[in-house]
Amino acid sequence: MSLVCPRCGPPLALAGRHRRRPHWARAVAPKCEASPSHPPVLTRRAVSAATLLLATLPFPASSPQLPVASASEAAAAAAAAEAQGESGVPEGLELERYTDQEQGFTLLKPASWPKVEKAGATALFQQEGKGSNNIGVVVNPVRLNSLTEFGTPQFVADRLLQAEKKKESTKSAEVISAGERSGHGGLTVYEIEYALDSTRGGMKRIFSAAFVASRKLYLLNIAYSDAKEKPLDSQTRTVLEQVLHSFDSV
């Protein structure tokens, strides 16, 4: 897929006669990082989504604003999940707080999901015995102050789905929801949910959250099985949504 990086852009066409510059005055276009052609299976989706946001999103025209969840509502939901006082939490999905002070993010994760090392992921947690159910975080530097400079949540969701559909392994992909909420210190956090049917892992439900802080792009990706013979149940979905809403800067 040949795309133009929004930071580099296409070369400008100058009017009039072309004049050669001395070799010492020639500008060198900055190089853009490309995602590896075959990243590890467990981090492929998180890395490709991060690469898309970093390297291929053009700056769109304005589009309708989506509802914003207040920071207090998001904090209350995260606190309720962290307290683990509610009934009906599926076995193995009890949540605990994970914070990376060095990279500057925090989230809730299933206590029984160990952290594993994979190239391309800042942090990756996977369900034991079923690595296709996983939570990944990717952090990359960007020349932006806010994710809103890329566009609205719906615009970002559409671009992510376009990228998914161009993969040979993708059979179908559909956006379920796209919105935004306020994070720590009024930070804008985008949240996207979509259904994915792929030859790599079958039917899955993907929950993504993204924000920009301190000129770094933070991307959370939650992948969980949603097969027709065993669809995602409401209790598991509630837990995954709590993980999604807990993703924030520190």
From TrEMBL:
Domain PsbP C-terminal: 95-248
Gene3D superfamilies on file: Mog1/PsbP, alpha/beta/alpha sandwich (3.40.1000.10)
InterPro entries: Mog1/PsbP_a/b/a-sand, PsbP_C
GO terms for cellular component: extrinsic component of membrane; photosystem II oxygen evolving complex
Name of protein: PsbP C-terminal domain-containing protein
Family matches, as SUPFAM superfamilies: Mog1p/PsbP-like
Example of a GO MF term: calcium ion binding
A family per Pfam: PsbP
Example GO biological process: photosynthesis
